[in-house]
Inverse folding.
């Protein structure tokens, strides 16, 4: 028997946003590997082994999944959102690079609805023009690089989406982000805080940068910043398709 | 009867990538509005009126959909990919802004798998670190702004995704894009051409900027450019999670 590895995105939370492709992969799996809360979203059944692990062990988790697949299992690694956006797909290919014997393994990445696009949909269309996505965590890169990217993104007049904006372990960085944005984009720029999108805890709020407070974000929040043309209509916020 | 308007993303092509949320919205619709090839992806049935229109009339199409919803219809506007990424959602809110009488209308944006994330999944994980998305068409913005964004994105060391890279009406722009990228990112930078992703015509090819030719892209292609750390492993291309 030849094993396989699918790296699957479960979307932001609502099961109505899980693609049929991912549902089929889970139905065919012998083993599911992932961070504890994501594995908890998979319905247990006979013949399926669930391997839940802690958050900060992406590379070990990827290695474990590769080994199970090499041993003939049909493995699915589950990520929240899309596996290719600040999630497990990159870690899997890093682990693969360290294991040349496994390069022939059949690996598929199954896309999912990523948090920024679910959040944008709930808010209106704030990412309706050129935009960028930045992970504000400095666990895997120096904070100076984040600041540099924020300033260049503002100069390019990109709309912006921020993943992992703030955690209790690093409250300072998001406060600094707001300072940089006020300076680079002005106090009237619109910013949307989208917490726990598509779950029962969902909370969406659009304010100006002048009104934005660091405490409006936590690790369950995706933050969207408009470009210079982003505006409100009724309860929606959107970025026009045109630019000058 | 109160009408409603859903702006729905059909994903890149494969029906296994249409979310159950979108499938349910189409099943409940009385009217479907959209660009001809996207409406062609909706199965006709009794009680459902299909309104297919040409490509360059987004604002009229949005207006038509708003009017149908205001008249009590359950309307779904269909977009390819995700409606919030270079698609119909922004046009709908622009049209809404012109129709203050309709501001109370119930509008939902239903996210979909956008082309760049489907393409990234097929290629590996080239967008696995901070990235930007740029529409290379200069129909709705000056070309000078596109060039400016390309240079700033390269300076920020973002991975990049390009929508609408090249059409027969504007072959020059993508050739110019490759020149700018070679200058700003070097000739060894990896670039992926993903054509007709998830359809029977799918073709994915990763080359260096030195090898890239303008003819490798057309309007059915999404182009992904790595950052300075993007590399290949086996048949995959990925961008590491870490940066220095």
């Amino acid at each position: 028997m030849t094993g396989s590895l699918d790296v699957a995105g479960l979307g932001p939370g609502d099961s109505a946003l899980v693609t049929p492709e991912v549902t089929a992969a889970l139905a065919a799996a012998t083993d599911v590997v992932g961070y504890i809360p994501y594995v908890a979203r998979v319905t247990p059944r006979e013949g399926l082994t669930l391997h839940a692990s802690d958050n900060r062990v992406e590379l070990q988790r990827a290695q474990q999944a590769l080994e199970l697949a090499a041993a003939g299992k049909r493995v699915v690694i589950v990520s929240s959102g899309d596996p290719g956006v600040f999630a497990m797909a990159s870690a899997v290919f890093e682990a693969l690079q360290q294991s040349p014997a496994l390069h022939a393994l059949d690996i598929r990445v199954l896309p999912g609805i990523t948090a920024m696009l679910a959040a944008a949909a709930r808010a209106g269309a704030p990412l309706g023009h050129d935009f960028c996505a930045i992970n504000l965590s400095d666990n895997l890169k120096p904070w100076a690089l984040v600041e540099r990217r924020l300033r260049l993104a503002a100069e390019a007049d990109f709309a912006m989406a921020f993943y992992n904006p703030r955690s209790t372990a690093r409250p300072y960085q998001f406060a600094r982000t707001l300072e940089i944005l006020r300076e680079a984009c002005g106090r009237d720029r619109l910013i949307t805080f989208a917490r726990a999108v598509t779950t029962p805890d969902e909370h969406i709020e659009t304010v100006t940068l002048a009104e934005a407070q660091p405490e409006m974000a936590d690790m369950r929040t995706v933050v969207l910043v408009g470009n210079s043309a982003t505006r409100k209509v009724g309860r929606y916020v959107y970025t026009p398709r045109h630019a000058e």
About this structure: Chain B touches chain A through 74 residues (CB under 8 Å).
